[in-house]
Amino acid sequence: MRWLVGWSSTAAGAAGIGSAGATGYDGETLHPVGSQLLWGDPDPLWAVGDWRPDEVRVVKADAQTRIAVLGTCGATDEELRRGLFAARGGALRHLTAWPGSYTAVVQVGRRITVCGDLAGARPVFHTAWAGGTAYATAALPLADLIEANLDFGHLAALLAAPEVPAVLRDTTPYDGVRRIPPGHALVLRAGAREIAGYEPVASLAVAAPPADPDSALDGVRDALVEAVRARLSAPRHVPDLDPGPVPGMGPAERRAARGMPVPGIGADLSGGPASGTLALLAAGLPGRPGTLLGHGTGAGERLLAVTFNDLVVGGREAELERAGTLAANPRLHHVVVTGGEETLPFADLDGPLTDEPGPSLVTAARHRARFAAGSADHFTGHGARQVLDAHPARLADLLMDRKRRHLVRPVAALARADGSVMVPARVYGAARRLARTPYRAGMELLAERLIRRRFDEPKGAVGASLAGLTWARPGPAARWLTGEALAEVSVLLQADRSSGGFAQRPGEFRARAVLARYAADLRVLEQAAEIRSQRLHAPFLDNQVVRACRALPEALRVQPGARSAVLRTVLEGAGVTNLPPGWGAPSHASSAAATRAGLRVAADSLVDLFSTPLLAEAGLVEARVVRKALRAAAAGEPVPLDGLADLVSLELWLRRLLSRRGTCWTGTPARARAVPSGIQPRRDALASGA
Question: Which of 84, 123, 88, 133 has its CA nearest to residue 103?
């Protein structure tokens, strides 16, 4: 893991804080473990972890005016300096408009500004500490700093309604540690904090101005090309040299066995449109995107393309064939990674402690097998579906804008998939109801569903679309929560007075919530499946790419096959035209088959995991109910598999958190770490939640 951490103190307390650290509760000097100091007193900032030299840049205008950029940023030092001068006057948005994925911190006198990203893949956290405010890009260091206990209300919300901002609010799994919403910045002035949004908010009073599809597509192409170019133009990183041969192993097998990536740049190549687009863009742009000369294959211009082939669950033969056709490009070096039962979801549950819990913990070993065969800088297509596809609730947005004719093609596609002539009327009626339902009524409806335990939803593609035509919906694991936990979440919904949904249309609101949920889980996956000396790149979650995708007209988004059509246009604009037949076709094989196979293989170990679960000790579930659901899923009964993944991953995360030793800080007593007293059974949880 890598993060930055710092704090802003009050003027009175500034004397006790210096570049060496800070004075803690018992007079000890505090500073992060394994850190490098970027600037010191009175408001210090550290970079913690195995940052590469080119990933940490500090540009100064004078002793009290400077900017630190951590991550992959395509801006030059001169552009950073101009951005610093503009930020000194209060402008923030341009600090997030450079290509790449990064976190920017600006210091102007005693004012500190930390910018989060639009998707939520690079979040910012803060907490009150020592009379001021401590901030970081990871929650666990702040939880260690204040010895935070678990926030059981947040854990209940993660299971009951993980895509509802009104329930999650700004909380984290650690009590007292807060999260900055996506699209916002944390502004600190001598310890006092303020949350400021840097994105313009559209008005509901008038319809949005009509967007030109051609210029919007050009914007997506330019943003993606710049995002890829920012990674290619960064200095190449060579992992630690191979210590020597192993009998019976080639260089690639030896590196994978020792957890070392191949030097250079590579990409996933699943056969789908997202990963294929990034691989072809990276291979086609100038600048030698492949491995370094003298390392690996010795082909300096070739990009390493990695395809995962599941030998247990079939159904993706067409995608694998398309990946092989794309890999015939002479600028690509193709590697196929095969996976057996050991790479199924739930099969291998050993792994490191992540900053937060996430459902991807149950599939981390599956992804790690693919990443281990990748390069030191590895492109992934994660996030393309969330930023390009249309959420079903966007049909209501079209009705609000009086664009009914654009509903014809998506509704007709659903009717063909279902084979029923009643589908258009059902979908149109649901979209019309949502367009006329206020945000407040949508939250109250969800609270009622939780209280009355109404979790049954229609099946199939039409059922999924109808279920999505709401302001909010219960999470897949909500059906297994205790009545007390569900009541606590419903109280939060009924007490919500935020304006989060009032300034947005329901489709836009749902799409942003889904993106934030996915980005948070991808961050968990990167930490759980991390390969030493490797960097995973997800350009679709870059700020500029997210902005360009949001500018796409809704009428274009909702059409069947819109994502593959957009990416095909992006490639054509970049000069790539020879795509294989069927490229972009949706896969009929679902990950649900692999998940169910993994549940079958790991059923006994999962039942043992929930023999005495910490979730039951916390009052969130009943162990007997979860064990019954696991056995039913292993037997093939129709059980929400993603809900079981939520339960298992949260239980795993709690066990790893409570079994950890040490802390993120030096100079602290042994007690100074998160959750020092373990799980404390909750009493009167409704009173605390209200």
Answer: 123
Q: Cα-atom radius of gyration of the chain, to the nearest Å?
A: 25
Mean pLDDT is lowest, of 26-40, 51-65, 231-245, for 231-245
Q: How far apart are CA 358 and CA 385, in angstroms?
A: 19
Name the residue type at position 25.
Y
Q: What H or E segment, with its residue span, contains residue 211?
A: none
Contacts of residue 137, Cβ cutoff 8 Å, sequence gap at least 6: 3, 4, 5, 70, 103, 122, 123, 124, 125
Q: Write down the mean pLDDT value for the chain.
A: 87
Q: Which residue has the tokens 């390969």?
A: 531
> In whole angstroms, how far apart are CA 201 and each of 4, 96, 609?
29, 16, 46
Measured distance CA(133)–CA(680) in Å, rounded: 27
On whether the CB atoms of residues 282 and 303 are closer than 8 A, the answer is: yes
Burial state string for 391-424 with b = 16 or more CB within 10 A and e = fewer than 16: bbbbbbbbbbbebeebbeebbebbbeebeeeebe
Residue where the block lists tokens 């900032």: 45
Q: Report the pLDDT value the prediction gives residue 438, as an integer from 0 to 100.
A: 92
In one-letter notation, the amino acid at residue 410 is: P
Arithmetic mean of pLDDT, 409-422: 82
> What single string gives the DSSP state of each residue in 214-227?
HHHHHHHHHHHHHH
Q: Is 70 helix (H, G, I), strand (E, B) or coil?
A: strand
How many Å apart are CA 411 and CA 427, to the nearest integer?
7
Q: What is the largest CA-CA distance in the chain?
A: 74
DSSP codes, 142-166 = HHHHHT--B-HHHHHHHHH-TT-HH
Lowest mean pLDDT among 100-114, 284-298, 310-324, 427-441: 284-298
pLDDT of residue 298: 45
Strand partners, 56: 70
State yes or no: cis peptide before 640, omega within 30 of 0.
Answer: no
Helix (H) or strand (E) holding 103: strand 100-108
Per-residue b/e over 344-355, b at no fewer than 16 CB within 10 Å? Answer: bbbbbbebebbb
pLDDT in tens, 145-183: 999 999 999 999 999 999 999 999 999 999 999 999 999
- Cα separations in angstroms, 95 against 16, 45, 134, 226, 385: 31, 18, 21, 16, 26
Residue 292 pLDDT exceeds 70: no
Which amino acid, 280?
L
Distance from C-alpha of 438 to C-alpha of 432, rounded to nearest angstrom: 12
Rounded CA separation 456/273 (Å):
33
* C-alpha of 200 from chain center: 23
Spatial separation of the C-alpha atoms in residues 253 and 271, rounded to whole Å:
24
From CA 293, how far away is CA 264, in angstroms rounded?
A: 9
* Residue labelled with tokens 């995107």: 289
CA gap 484, 684 in Å, rounded = 9
d(CA 249, CA 23): 52
- The two structure tokens encoding residue 315: 């159904």
**d(C-alpha 592, C-alpha 603), whole Å:** 16
pTM for this one?
0.93
> By the 8 A CB rule, do 239 and 261 touch?
yes
Checking DSSP bridges between strand 100-108 and strand 111-115, what pairing results, if any? antiparallel
Go through the chain and tell me how many residues it has.
Answer: 690
Task: Write the pLDDT tens digit of every residue in 612-624.
Answer: 999 999 999 999 9
Q: Which two tokens stand for residue 430?
A: 């649901």
Q: φ and ψ at 499, to 5 degrees? A: -105, 25
Of 535, 537, 545, 536, the closest CA to residue 226 belongs to: 545
Question: Distance between CA 269 and CA 277 in Å, rounded?
Answer: 9
Nearest to 652 by CA among 596, 689, 688, 602: 602
Phi, psi of 59, rounded to the nearest 5 degrees: -120, 130
